[in-house]
Structures are given as structure tokens and as C-alpha cells.
Amino acid sequence: MISASMADAGFRDALRLFQNDAAALRDPGPTLETTATPPEPPRVVSSDVIESTTVRAHRIADPPVAGFEAFLDGAQESRVVHYCDGIPIVFGRVAAVVRQRVLRRMITWKRPETRSRLYVPRGLVPASLWTRIVARGFDPVDTTDADVTESSDWPEVDAHPFAIAQRALDAVKRERESAERKLAEDWVAIRSEPVFIDGSIATSDRVSVAPNAVGVIKSHRTLYVSGPAMRVVQSLPLNHRSSVLRVVAYHRTAVASWYLRIRDCAGRDPMWGLLRVETAMPDRSASPQQVADHANLVSRWILAEMMPLSLPDSRWDKMVYGIHDCEEFLKALRA
Fold this sequence. Notes:
By secondary structure, this protein is an alpha/beta fold. Helix content is 30%, strand content 26%. The strands form three sheets. A ten-stranded mixed β-sheet has the order 2-12-13-14-9-8-4-5-6-7, sandwiched between helices. A two-stranded parallel sheet has the order 1-10. Strands 3-11 form a two-stranded antiparallel sheet. β5 (87-102) and β6 (105-120) form a beta hairpin.
């Protein structure tokens, strides 16, 4: 495990880099993750049903059963450490870890992925500042580079500081996804046991087709059902899942997906205790019953991870204990 002093060294070094500037920050303030506007607007996308002809609720009749060997999660943190003539310079750090269950204990598999960098719009700051950052040993990311955030929508002049900070936040997110993807690809390349991945598996061509990779999505900015199918999903009872869908998110690989209710949402909003599960698309020769049996089995694996409760986590309605353990481990890395 990385010590607290090592975990925070990069952030302190970034602050010291600018401490002699007249405009040095007295307080870096909250993380951008807590203040930025969510980049993805709510939307609804229709998906094809591959288990049957319509989306309906299916009860998970058999009891939960342990099936996951490991859990994968990542974390990120971004803060403005300096303003150069109003242009925010952002320090970002990401980490990802696989926690493996061995003899009912959680241990770390391989070495966690950890990265810390400065995010700077090179075309909007003096060349001397970029040179100074590099000379002090930092590996800066040019956030005016279209490849960094997969967006060419960048003003040459008069860029709003919030837009610059959002651009850096998007780049940090991509870095976190890259760290998570590397660990996921390492696991499916050499291990055959099931791994629970917090988030989509569709970001990797290798992971999205791996039979032992299960992605679990807790947020629902995008709903992959519409019309009557959406009403079925929103009214799913406890221990029920939806029919299996074929989901294609943006340019990513198609995956099999279904919604699963893991907590009773009576008296709460329809998203309470609702997960969306992703696995590799079934073989074309698979029958609808085989598709259903696999979805039921994976759902039983997930339901088996409900105890103990992941308290005091505010997201306990969607949190499984293995991912909670990953998050606590990642917090210790940057404490």
C-alpha cells in the first residue's frame, strides 16, 4: 500500500510549483468532481430485446449464490492548483484497483494503477509556464489537444474558465477509465474467474467479449428502454430483473444488458436500488432459455453481494460490499 505521504506528494509538489507566484492560491477549494455540471444530459435510448420479444419483469426465484472472485473499481480527484491570468491549471490523480476474495478475505490483486498529472491548456498559457512545469518533473497534459477529451469544440481565445476546468475534468476521467481498462484487460487475459467491474465493460473490445467480465452500472443518466419497457423497468419489484437487451452505447462494443432491482424501492424514486448489468453478447446459437439462465445466474451472484450493508455509504442502495471495499482501499491511497 502507498503511504499517505507518498499518496499526497504529487498534489503538494503541484502547489509548491506556483507558491512564489503573486496569484498563488491560498485554498485550492473543493474538487471539480463535486462542483462541475454533469457532462451527460439525461436521455432515453431504445434497445433490441434478445431474450424474448418484449421487455418484462422476471423474478429471480433461486437463492443468491457467491460467484465473483474479484471486484474492480477506480477513483479520480481533480483540483485547480493555480490560475495563470485567469486560466485554471488543474492537478488530477486517478487510481484503479482489483480486490480479490481469497478465503473470505479481500486482498489486492497485482499492483494498483495510480497516476498524477497536471492538466494545462498549452495554447492559452505562456510558453515559459509550460517549460517550467516540465522542468520540475511533471508530465503535463495539453487540454487543447482534441485527442485528450475526444472533442474538437475548443475556442482559440476568450475561453471561459469553467469550460477550461471542465475540459481538464474530462481528461482526468479518460485517464481513470484507461487505468480501469488496463486492469480489467489484465484480469480477463490471465484469469477465468468472474470479475465484478464497477461501470461499463463496453469501453474495451477485449473485456466486452470476455465471458468472465460483468459490468454493473449504478447511475442512469441514459436509460436503454423507452415507452412501455421503461415503465416495466421503473416498476421492477425487489429481486426481479428485466428482459435481456442488446445495448450499444455511443461507439462502443455491443453488450448484453438487463436491469436488476436489488433493494425495495417502495416509497422512493424509481431508480432506488436499480442496477444495470452488462455481460458479453451471447453466442448466436444460444437459445432464449440459455440467455435467461445466464442472466438469472449473474443476477444471483450480484444479489449475494448485498450483505453486509455498505454503510455509512450514501449510495448503499446500489453499492455492493466488494466495490465498497475497493473504494475504501482507494481512499487510503490518497488519504
